[in-house]
Specification:
4-stranded antiparallel beta sheet; 6-stranded antiparallel beta barrel; alpha+beta; 361 residues; 4 domains; 39% helix
């Protein structure tokens, strides 16, 4: 075979091989070609002047947050007055703890205050003519009796000198006379105090005793009030953890129920670090609730939390390792026709409106 024939056959084989490779790459790309991960198209000047929307995930939460209600003192629940789904007002009684000891202490404190107040009133009022006369009569009666006993004592001494009386009998009578003399001095001081009236020091002492009793009463009332577990905010009862008969402790967290204000909701979004530069307060966007792909609502960025953190909006485990850092964005929903509930997951698009699902009408 001549060189010319070899050259013709070589050119033909080259053309055939090139054609086969072109057909393989264009018609059957899955054979013989390594798989390539699809990437988002980046807008280039001249091709698409519109910026891409920031796509992110988030969830619905209460603006005022959720509150786990606990008891301030340890005890056993006597009554739980609400159940899940009930609407409550701030200050409303939700549950009551047993309080037999606190009730008894409160009654004792009230009685002590009454006694102290009566004593103060008596001291401030002083003594009337009847009290003064009675005190004077008590002194005179004891003086007469003391004079009689002193006369008897002198007779006993003479008998003792004549050896007609033992020393024990004489000592006993002398002791009785000494006691009567001390009693007379006490009655005389009381008579002078009654006639003089209350001293300023006595009034101050009575006032101090009343103040102490009132302080103890106030403390008993506060402890009694701790038995009544009230709602810290107005909202809806989401979950009841404890029931009547259950014990609650203050040494470790034992919440009784959970409340949230569902009247005002917002959407918390997690924005990946590369997209943060494209955010601004007041930026509008759209969102979809998971499970409602046919409906799309509007939202607006209200707050950008100025702090980066690991991505754990849907992963509360703080020990979980995450390579993606995010920033939290708080948004206000602008479409009341889409029902929102606490904890719902949403997908948001900040920037240009995303084509696809239609807005509710």
């Amino acid at each position: 075979m001549s060189k010319r024939h070899w050259l013709v056959h070589g050119v033909g084989a080259l053309v055939f091989g090139s054609t086969a490779m072109f057909v393989r790459d264009s018609i059957l790309p899955e054979f013989g070609r390594p798989y390539r991960t699809p990437t988002a198209e980046v807008a280039r000047p001249g091709r698409d002047a519109r910026p891409r929307a920031v796509v992110c995930s988030g969830r619905v939460e209460s603006i005022r947050g959720e509150v786990e209600v606990s008891a301030l003192i340890a005890g056993r629940l006597e009554e739980v007055r609400v159940t899940e789904g009930d609407s409550v007002r701030a200050g409303e009684i939700l549950a009551i703890l047993e309080g037999a000891r606190e009730t008894e202490e409160l009654r004792t404190a009230e009685a002590n205050v009454t006694v102290a107040r009566l004593k103060l009133e008596q001291v401030q009022a002083g003594n009337g003519k009847e009290e003064i006369d009675q005190a004077q009569q008590d002194v005179k009666a004891l003086e007469a009796k003391l004079a009689y006993e002193k006369t008897n004592l002198e007779c006993l001494r003479r008998l003792y000198q004549k050896r007609a009386l033992t020393s024990d009998e004489l000592q006993r009578k002398m002791h009785e006379v000494e006691q009567m003399m001390r009693q007379r001095e006490s009655l005389q001081k009381r008579y002078e105090a009654v006639r003089r009236g209350p001293l300023p020091e006595q009034v101050e002492v009575a006032r101090g005793e009343l103040a102490v009793a009132e302080t103890r009463l106030q403390r008993s009332k506060v402890e009694m009030g701790y038995r009544l577990i009230r709602a810290p905010i107005s909202g809806t009862v989401l979950e009841v953890y404890r029931h009547a008969g259950d014990a609650v402790n203050t040494e470790y967290a034992t919440p009784i129920l959970r409340i949230a204000d569902t009247s005002r909701l917002r959407i918390r979004l997690e924005i990946d670090e590369p997209d943060v530069a494209r955010l601004r307060v007041g930026q509008e966007g759209s969102f979809q609730v998971r499970g409602m792909t046919e409906a799309e609502g509007r939202l607006v960025v209200k707050t950008i939390i100025p702090m980066f953190g690991p991505k754990r909006l849907f992963n509360p485990d703080t020990s979980a390792r995450s390579d993606t850092r995010t920033i939290a964005v708080l948004c206000e929903p602008r479409d009341d026709r889409i029902p929102l509930f606490l904890g719902q997951r949403v997908t948001a698009y900040l920037g240009d409106a995303r084509p696809g699902p239609r807005t509710l009408r």
